[in-house]
TrEMBL record, chain A:
Keywords: Cell membrane, Membrane, Phosphate transport, Transmembrane, Transmembrane helix, Transport. This is Phosphate transport system permease protein PstA. PANTHER family: PHOSPHATE TRANSPORT SYSTEM PERMEASE PROTEIN PSTA. Belongs to the binding-protein-dependent transport system permease family. CysTW subfamily. It holds the Pfam family BPD_transp_1. It comes from Streptomyces olindensis. Part of the binding-protein-dependent transport system for phosphate; probably responsible for the translocation of the substrate across the membrane. Residues 135-341 form the ABC transmembrane type-1 domain.
From TrEMBL, chain B:
The gene is pstB. This is Phosphate ABC transporter ATP-binding protein PstB. The keyword Transferase does not apply. Pfam families: ABC_tran. SUPFAM superfamilies: P-loop containing nucleoside triphosphate hydrolases (SSF52540). SMART domains: AAA. NCBIfam families: 3a0107s01c2.
């Protein structure tokens, strides 16, 4: 009975009133116009203020109109959607503006000469010079750090996932977690006191590599561990049931299945340590000359170069431009690493195609 | 090359939990033995004790004896890896190695155990795929990924992979439960052919399947959840399905439980 009356009232209960697709855009345009109008009328100068007013108007406006036309459930859906969009924009705006600022200021002095010359005979106040010595230093220091920490990290993760049971595994997991939280300056101080003060070694790129590998190790262990856990147990059992020893199973089945993810993790770890400044300042120091030997004497590196050029520039002039150009190179380097990581992950991912 | 299995007084544990209690049975060579029984009664656990895969599970341990032609698999100095080369296994869900091609999947057992010549491998791969009734379907795409095959083909690929290492015994843990009736039929036919060469033990929830493919059937049951599973009886399949000697078996087979 109730069914009959219901269907008489509402011919189709599956089809409600819907607002047209341009509705959201129209409300957005309206609220921006209104926000600008209000802030002009009230004499507010800041960009943030009118944007906040507009955002508030947009959320309230779309909720109000939608609730009236479409019903409360759709209205809530619209509010949730717009909140997610606001969150997304808030996350993207700093990133986009950072890249914009770096590119805009960085391209001024960025050219082949800049990439292929050192600061050898150039004073900080003079134009010219380049970052060849810093690129060389960063590549060597990060490369050695990677060579140190990737084997240790991957083997630790294999131990934790494939063999580790009981107290030792728990202790290792705990210390890896603690290492993740070590501030980079502390890693630098550790190497400074151990390598340079106690053992009496001099400043060198290798000392920096050791400090960087302390920072890199927990990231490699963690990401590799997660990737190895993703390998289905059935594959391990299938291999063991063929009479393959455990170590060969790990080497030939588990690692190839997860190599894409492990590579991505390693690349992200490299990207993380490439930008480290503090430990390098403590244990590698800096030089304006090309030093290709990472085991002896101070070396330059991109982050330290950026820091010192900026610190000596007073906010303008050639050194200031060089700092931005070096920052652009650093960002580009990390971005290329990320793209390479993605490429490798895609290339090595288990194939499902026919 | 098929071998006889003699089990006596076998208990299987997960940590301190006794999952399977006091099992003794004889599994004849060149025959198919089916294990039936309700879920959780320890069929799969028992099956995994026959090639020492049970101890791969954390906390898994076994007491008792499993004789493979008079050699105790749980004796001192026995290498579980060597046992698993003698006693192969096919799992419930098809699990080809996702990074490997069809060819590499079949060759995996040999290749991972040592070096073989390419021509030898070619022969083994062809023979095993033919043995698993899969050769005609995949001979043109041996270098395509194994995970690109259909579910039934993947399962036959796993059987080919298992028989490529020439085991004496083949254990199958519900090999058809993830497959459609046509693929199931293909695998059942295959089991009929394989029993000429191997001792086959199959766990199944499908009573008709047990009746169709097996020579001997073992019925497992457990008193209650949390109690260990036990072997109720093992007998010729015909007898189990027509005139079992234990009432519980008849109740289970005819659908009246408890």
């Amino acid at each position: 009975m109730s069914n009959a009356t219901l269907s008489a009232k509402r011919p189709s209960s599956l089809k409600g009133a819907t607002l047209p697709k341009w509705f959201s855009w129209a409300v957005a345009a309206g609220s921006i116009a209104l926000g600008l109008g209000i802030s002009t009328a009230a004499g507010l100068g800041s960009n943030i203020q009118w944007a906040l007013i507009a955002a508030l108007l947009f959320v309230l406006g779309s909720y109000g109109i939608s609730a009236r036309v479409e019903g409360r459930r759709q209205a809530k859906d619209r509010v949730a959607t717009s909140l997610i969009w606001v969150a997304f924009l808030l996350a993207v705006i700093p990133l986009a503006s950072l890249i914009y600022a770096t590119v805009k200021r960085g391209v001024k002095v960025l050219d082949g000469y800049f990439l292929s010359h050192s600061m050898g005979v150039i004073a900080d106040t003079e134009p010219g010079g380049g970052i060849y010595h810093a690129i060389l230093g960063t590549l060597e220091q990060v490369g050695i750090a990677t060579v140190i920490s990737v084997p240790i990290g991957v083997l630790t993760a294999i131990y934790l996932v494939e063999y580790g049971r009981g107290k030792l595994a728990k202790a290792i997991t705990f210390f890896v977690d603690v290492m993740t939280g070590i501030p980079s300056i502390v890693a630098g101080l550790f190497i400074l006191s151990l390598w340079i003060i106690i053992l009496g070694m001099g400043y060198s790129g290798f000392a920096g590599s050791m400090a960087l590998s302390i920072l890199m190790l927990p990231v490699v262990v963690r990401s590799t561990e997660e990737m190895l856990k993703l390998v289905p147990n059935e594959l391990r059992e299938a291999s063991l049931a063929l009479g393959v020893p455990k170590w060969r199973t790990i080497l030939k089945v588990v690692l190839p299945t997860s190599i894409g993810g492990i590579t991505t993790g390693v690349m992200l770890a490299i990207a993380r340590i490439t930008g480290e400044t503090a430990p390098l300042l403590l244990v590698v120091w800096v030089t304006n000359f090309i030093n290709a030997n990472p085991f002896k004497d101070p070396q330059a590196s991109l982050p330290v170069y950026i820091y010192l050029q900026f610190a000596n520039s007073g906010g303008q002039g050639p050194a200031y431009d060089r700092a931005w150009a070096a920052a652009l190179v650093l960002i580009a380097f990390i971005m290329i690493l990320n793209l390479v990581a993605r490429g490798i992950a895609r290339w090595k991912a288990p194939k499902t195609g026919r | 090359m098929a071998k006889r299995i003699d089990v006596s007084g076998l208990n299987a544990y997960y940590g301190s939990f006794l999952a399977v209690e006091d099992i003794s049975m004889t599994i004849q060579p060149r025959s198919v033995t089916a294990f039936i029984g309700p879920s959780g009664c320890g069929k799969s656990t028992f099956l995994r004790t026959l090639n020492r895969m049970h101890e791969v599970t954390p906390g898994g341990r076994v007491e008792g004896k499993v004789l493979l032609d008079d050699e105790n698999l749980y004796g001192a100095g026995i290498d579980p890896v060597a046992v698993r080369r003698e006693v192969g296994m096919v799992f419930q869900r098809p699990n080809p190695f996702p990074t490997m091609s069809v060819y590499d999947n079949v060759a995996a057992g040999l290749r991972l155990n040592g070096s073989y010549k390419k021509s030898e491998l070619d022969d083994v791969v062809e023979k095993s795929l033919k043995g698993a009734n899969l050769w005609n379907e995949v001979k043109d795409r041996l270098n395509k990924p194994g995970s690109g095959l259909s579910g039934g083909q993947q399962q036959r690929l796993c059987i080919a992979r298992a028989i490529a290492v020439e085991p004496n015994v083949l254990l199958m843990d519900e090999p058809c439960s993830a497959l459609d009736p046509i693929s199931t039929l293909a695998i059942e036919d295959l089991i009929g052919e394989l029993k000429e060469r191997f001792t086959i033990v199959i766990v199944t929830h499908n009573m008709q399947q047990a009746a169709r493919v097996s020579d001997r059937t073992a019925f497992f049951n457990l008193a209650a959840v949390g109690q260990p599973g036990k072997l109720i009886e093992i007998d010729d399949t015909e007898r189990i399905f027509s005139n079992p000697s234990v009432q519980a078996t008849e109740d289970y087979i005819s659908g009246r439980f408890g």
